[in-house]
Every structure is written in C-alpha cells, then in structure tokens.
Design a protein that fits this description.
Strand content: 35-45%
Number of strands: 6
Distance between the termini: 14 Å
Shape: globular
Strand order of the largest sheet: 2-5-1-6
CATH architecture: 2-Layer Sandwich
CATH topology: Alpha-Beta Plaits
Number of helices: 2
CATH class: Alpha Beta
Number of domains: 1
C-alpha cells in the first residue's frame, strides 16, 4: 500500500545540524528498504499558486495565502504493509522533526 504524508510543523524553524544528520540517516534507511519512495520540502507560501475550477470558470491565485492557518512543510510518499506501519513511520519522522503533525493519506492502487 502506498501512503502520502503531509508534514505540518508547529512553527517554521531551520533544523539543527544534529536534526539534519538524524533525518538524513532516517531517509537513507527507509529509502534502502523501499519504504520511502519520495520526499521533499515546500518553499514558503509566496512561491505557491492555487488553481481553482468552479462552475466552469478557472481562476489562478498567486501566494502568499494569508488565510492559510497551517503551514505544510513537506511530504513523503511511503510504501507500507498497513496503515499501522505508515503511522509508525510518521511517529519515527516526528520524533526527529519535533512538534507538528503528519497527515497520512492512503493512495488508490491500480493504474
């Protein structure tokens, strides 16, 4: 099963050298086992763009999005045997990343 996780830090702060090293080790381990398929961080919201389709009309809005209450710091695409395994992977990530949360979304299988 594949899962997409979205990381929402409690506040934006640059990681310490120790945190960077620990996260690098975690990423390397999970990539080698095939559990981590992709990962990445997001740039601050001024670089964002929102494309919306409603009632036949398409609108494009450039960031920053001042109404946004939650910062999404990054994502990970995971391969896990179960929802519980994906939760354990998110817990391990958060133990290094610190305060914040991970949303976990199971992806549909198939083409």
């Amino acid at each position: 099963m594949r899962f997409l996780t979205l990381y929402k830090p409690a506040e934006f702060a640059s990681p310490s050298p120790r945190e960077n090293a620990e996260m690098g080790k975690l990423i390397e381990e999970e990539t080698k086992t095939g559990a981590l398929l992709a990962t990445g961080g997001f740039l601050p919201s001024p670089k964002d763009v929102r494309v919306r389709h409603a009632k036949g009309k398409v609108t494009v809005t450039d960031g920053p999005f001042t109404e946004a209450k939650e910062l999404i710091g990054g994502f990970a695409l995971l391969e896990a045997k179960s929802r519980e395994e994906a939760i354990e992977m998110a817990k391990r990530f958060l133990s290094i990343a610190g305060d914040g949360e991970c949303e976990i979304h199971q992806l549909m299988d198939g083409p």
